[in-house]
DNA sequence: CGTGTAAGGAATTCTGACACG
DNA sequence: CGTGTAAGGAATTCTGACACG
């Protein structure tokens, strides 16, 4: 609650133009990888895509795989697997935090 | 050189629209604080302002000061002083890094 | 399959100015 | 002094499609 639960790295704040610059990819490629479900930008209420720094990193990984000849379909399942693990890990961490809170603040009120 | 010399926090990647959302300030205010030299966004070659997360934090501080009735002129000198200290600190850190490098990689080639 | 491009429209951003105070 | 707003233009982004393969 207090600090940088996910700070800057995961905040979706960049539009596609900067992502293009940062990654060296074309807008076409960036949008296409989204269509293939490799990347999941946010949208403003008016439909503009917003990306995070971690999205940028992920796009660079994707670009590497593509260059290696890996198809988007395969990249997708690799990434999905990793995302799943990551989510599980975060849930565990949250549970530990919760227990610590319960321990130290037990019936504090 | 290797890692996050300044990572995400200081990278100027957001356009004014998101900054507006993140800070709750109006575009007018954000641009005005720039004119008064409280904030220094980058510009794309075509003139679009780009801000960093630290710019966002700074804008919130500025907004607080303004609310307290402090004038931009005074805020400016406060911030300038702090920036100066920060820069000095960074220079010192760089020097230390340089010396460590010199020590460990002395005539490595 | 992955990517380039021209097309037309919608949303964003920019500057300088008038306004109030 | 700090901020709102309407004005007109320039730059950005979006989608669906044609193209190549």
TrEMBL record, chains A, B:
The keyword Transcription regulation applies. The keyword Cell membrane does not apply. InterPro entries: DNA-bd_dom_put_sf, MerR-type_HTH_dom, MerR_fam. Residues 13-81 form the HTH merR-type domain. SUPFAM superfamilies: Putative DNA-binding domain (SSF46955). SMART domains: HTH_MERR. It comes from the Bacteria. It holds the Pfam family MerR_1. Keywords: DNA-binding, Repressor, Transcription, Transcription regulation. This is MerR family transcriptional regulator.
């Amino acid at each position: 609650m207090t600090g940088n639960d996910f700070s800057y790295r995961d905040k979706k704040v960049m539009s596609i133009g900067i992502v293009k610059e940062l990654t060296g990819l074309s807008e076409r490629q960036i949008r296409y990888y989204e269509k293939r479900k490799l990347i999941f930008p946010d949208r403003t209420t008016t439909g503009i895509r917003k990306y995070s720094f971690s999205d940028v990193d992920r796009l660079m990984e994707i670009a590497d795989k593509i260059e290696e000849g890996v198809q988007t379909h395969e990249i997708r399942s690799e990434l999905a697997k990793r995302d799943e693990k990551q989510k599980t890990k975060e849930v565990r961490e949250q549970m530990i935090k919760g227990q610590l809170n319960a321990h130290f603040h037990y019936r504090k009120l």
